[in-house]
Design brief:
120 residues; 55% helix; binds heme C
């Protein structure tokens, strides 16, 4: 039991220590932020994409996924996860998987992907 609580405490410290919350003004003023908020990405990824218990941080996602890959992933994360070892390997890390967003209008999806690439 004690080991269990120590593990939880260590994990909480790790999350707190790695969570960067302040977003640059240039990123937070982008129009894609509105798309991020209106689709409730914030519910799992945090108000500034900092991540948390429900989902990973998106703050350096531009280093991992191109804009084209992001657009494809957001439309159908399950299909993407089947062919991408890194994302497929996240299964079980969080309480839910990433939901798909097939209904975001193409223009909004472009804005959203620009916003995601500006997060750092
Ligand atoms: C219900 C919670 C939830 C919501 C809502 C959600 N996500 Fe996710 N997201 C996740 C989880 C969990 C993962 C990790 C992959 C997995 O396990 O499926 C993830 C992964 C991602 C990734 C890949 C990160 C990486 O390191 O490659 C991106 C990009 C992403 N989400 C963007 C978004 C955007 C943009 C929205 C809103 C349109 C959104 N997410 C809404 C839970 C969520």
């Amino acid at each position: 039991m004690r080991a269990f609580f120590c593990t939880i405490f260590a994990a909480a410290l790790l999350v707190a220590g790695c969570t960067k919350t302040k977003l640059s003004d240039s990123a937070s003023s982008l129009p894609g932020r509105r798309v991020f908020e209106s689709n409730n990405c914030t519910r799992c990824h945090g108000s500034d994409g900092e991540g948390g218990m429900a989902a990973p941080s998106l703050r350096d996602v531009s280093a991992r996924l191109t804009k084209a890959q992001l657009a494809e992933y957001l439309r159908d994360p399950d299909a993407f996860a089947r062919k991408d070892e890194r994302i497929g390997g996240m299964a079980g890390t969080y309480p839910t998987r990433m939901p798909g967003f097939p209904n975001i209008a193409p223009a909004d999806l472009d804005l959203l992907v620009d916003y995601l690439h500006a997060l750092n």
